[in-house]
Design brief:
Elements: H1 3-33, H2 40-55, E1 70-86, E2 91-97, E3 105-109, E4 113-116, E5 119-132, E6 136-144, E7 148-151, H3 155-163, E8 169-172, E9 183-186, E10 195-197, E11 201-204, E12 207-210, H4 214-222, H5 227-254, H6 258-280, H7 286-301
């Protein structure tokens, strides 16, 4: 058995373990809280919040095992979840409510980048994709709570979404093939749509959101409200990772590796672009954000990071 296959099996076991534990917590929360008075609803909402966090864990480590992960998730009952993001605190918050008229339970998540719309439903579809600039920065987790129809996407996106085999995500060649009440995501040839994908931005109800690759395109489509906050969090993480690379390059250079030393100016250029994007704080301007993000992507993708002989700094 190859190492890759072992990693794949480990990934599937990890997802199964998280699913079992998360489902058990959900069941116990609903079963026992119904027998408690006063605090029952709040306890249920708290346990749903924690178990959802657990169930999303495997999606936050998908590329480490080189195995794509796309799975349906079912809540124990119809649940309202509202998402918010705080870039300064490097965290997201979910407010969970299972009963009308009751206060929602706030729950903070610090180790994930979740792109989702607020929802009131029971059934979800979740998948993830690594954000690379060019090394893996972290995984983007997409929580899909309603049907989406991708109209005339590029063949690579069509094939990738079709391979998810999700009842929530439908890539089609014509708008007439979209399911009723689905969110229409138009690439070309549409007269009626909810979201429009342009060559370097996604037009949403939250404005035009700049993207640099397929992973960020999906993030803009499935989580437009969270998009720029999570992008700032990811850029901050990338900035920290660049510092680590500069330090490692210096250590290798001291040992006679001139190629590592030559990379330092390029990584410093990447850091400069990141800092400009973060300091701008004007994510409402699609043109400025797009230009800065494209500059960041340009610098990052031309760094031959493999010369440092450091694998997957994103897991550190």
């Amino acid at each position: 058995m190859t190492i890759k296959n072992k990693k794949a099996q480990g990934m599937q076991f990890g997802w199964l373990f998280a699913l079992i534990i998360g489902a058990a917590i959900l069941f116990l929360a609903v079963f026992f809280s119904g027998r408690l008075l006063g605090t029952g609803t709040q306890m249920t909402q708290a346990e749903i919040s924690r178990s959802l966090d657990i169930l999303l864990n495997p999606f936050a480590s998908v590329s480490q095992a080189e195995v794509g992960l796309s799975k349906p998730l079912t809540m124990p009952q119809k649940t309202t979840i509202n998402f918010s993001c705080n870039a300064a605190a490097d965290s997201e918050r979910i407010d969970v409510k299972v009963e009308l008229g009751k206060a929602p339970f706030p729950y903070t998540i610090k180790n994930k980048y979740i792109f989702a719309e607020d929802f009131n439903t029971k059934d979800l579809w979740v998948f993830s994709k690594p954000f690379k600039m060019p090394w893996k920065v972290d995984d983007m987790i997409y929580v899909v709570s309603r049907p989406y129809c991708f109209i005339n996407p590029p063949q690579s996106i069509y094939d990738e979404l079709n391979a998810l085999n999700s009842s929530f995500i439908q890539p089609v060649k014509s708008a007439s093939m979209c399911k009723q009440n689905s969110v229409k995501v138009c690439f070309t040839g549409c007269t009626v749509y909810d979201i429009k994908v342009n060559p370097d931005s996604v037009k949403t109800k939250y404005g035009s959101l700049a993207y640099v690759d397929d992973a960020t395109l999906y993030a803009a489509v499935f989580g437009p409200k969270m998009y720029y906050c999570n992008m700032e969090r990811l850029l901050n993480r990338l900035n920290s990772q660049a510092d680590v690379f500069i330090e490692k390059a210096g250590l290798l250079s001291e040992r006679g590796c001139t190629e590592a030393n030559a990379l330092t100016p390029e990584i410093l250029g990447l850091k400069s672009a990141i800092n400009n994007a973060i300091s701008l704080k004007d994510y409402s301007s699609s043109f400025q954000a797009r230009q800065l993000m494209k500059r960041t992507g340009y610098n990052a993708h031309y760094i031959n990071i493999n010369k440092l002989n450091i694998k997957d700094i994103g897991s550190n």
